[in-house]
Backbone:
């Protein structure tokens, strides 16, 4: 895996917050007794603390297993570098997640190899590498993460104080996020809409609103029934749209967008317009610069013209 060329897809609510189990999970045991250089995280602390903190400090997240000696060696190497790099200024923080204890979280992060190291910058996840690498190369990768974070406006914390003034989060965004966590999707929709009334075009609220609407739609439907409806009538745009919703929910964004683009390409009239409108709404679940969105917009233009 590589971080060259920028950061990949947004860690968005539609997939990562809803796909994780709603239950509260107990904290993991640390790999070693000592060492405050890192934070052992579970689902709750990852979502509530680690990801939000990445708006100020880039986070290096190691998904490990106690069954893997390579995992333990990698964590130890990262701890040593963390202590070295963060003596005066917190340039990056270190978090570790036990994949054996938190399989749903590992799956939501799309981890297939242990250990896997990811960077979280401004609530975006970027895969870094999935094997032990030499310490000198490890330091190069970490420096690149810090550089990428700075380009995103994430500049670290000096002496416990953010290097740049932190703008307080919009209270309605806080309400919306809590509503999403509580599976209160109509309340989340209302809160995001309030933000957009005050701040039209706000990127976070726009994406959050699309996520909340998708979660509401999928919570009111059955995926098996949705698939059956498509098989019974492939020319039903509403049925295709609902299956696309479930594909987004399951982390299969490529399949979802491709499904609707192909439908638009092969249909005309009202059914085509239903699919086009739904696809444009799904686009709002992604950050404007995400490669998947850029590719899908290009494919849609070809399908339409």
Residues:
């Amino acid at each position: 895996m590589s971080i060259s060329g920028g950061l990949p897809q947004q860690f968005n609510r539609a997939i990562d917050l809803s796909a994780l189990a709603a239950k509260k999970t107990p904290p993991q045991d640390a790999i070693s007794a000592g060492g405050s250089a890192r934070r052992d995280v579970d689902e709750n602390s990852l979502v509530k603390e680690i990801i939000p903190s990445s708006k100020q400090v880039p986070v290096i997240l190691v998904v490990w297993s106690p069954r893997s000696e390579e995992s333990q060696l990698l964590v130890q190497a990262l701890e040593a570098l963390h202590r070295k790099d963060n003596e005066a200024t917190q340039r990056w923080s270190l978090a570790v997640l036990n994949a054996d204890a938190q399989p749903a979280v590992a799956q939501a992060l799309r981890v297939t190899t242990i250990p896997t190291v990811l960077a979280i910058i401004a609530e975006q996840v970027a895969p870094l590498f999935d094997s032990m690498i030499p310490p000198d190369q490890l330091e190069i990768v970490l420096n690149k993460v810090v550089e990428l974070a700075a380009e995103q406006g994430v500049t670290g914390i000096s002496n416990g104080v953010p290097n740049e003034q932190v703008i307080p989060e919009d209270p309605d965004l806080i309400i919306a996020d809590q509503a999403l966590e509580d599976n209160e999707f109509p309340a989340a929709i209302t809160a995001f809409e309030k933000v957009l009334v005050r701040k039209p075009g706000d990127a976070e609220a726009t994406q959050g609103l699309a996520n909340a609407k998708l979660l509401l739609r999928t919570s009111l439907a059955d995926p098996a029934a949705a698939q059956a409806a498509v098989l019974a009538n492939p020319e039903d745009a509403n049925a295709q749209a609902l299956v696309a919703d479930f594909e987004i929910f399951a982390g299969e964004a490529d399949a979802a967008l491709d499904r609707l683009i192909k439908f638009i390409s092969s249909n005309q009239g009202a059914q085509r317009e239903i699919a086009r409108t739904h696809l444009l709404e799904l686009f709002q679940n992604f950050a404007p610069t995400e490669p998947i969105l850029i590719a899908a917009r290009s494919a849609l233009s070809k399908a339409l013209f």
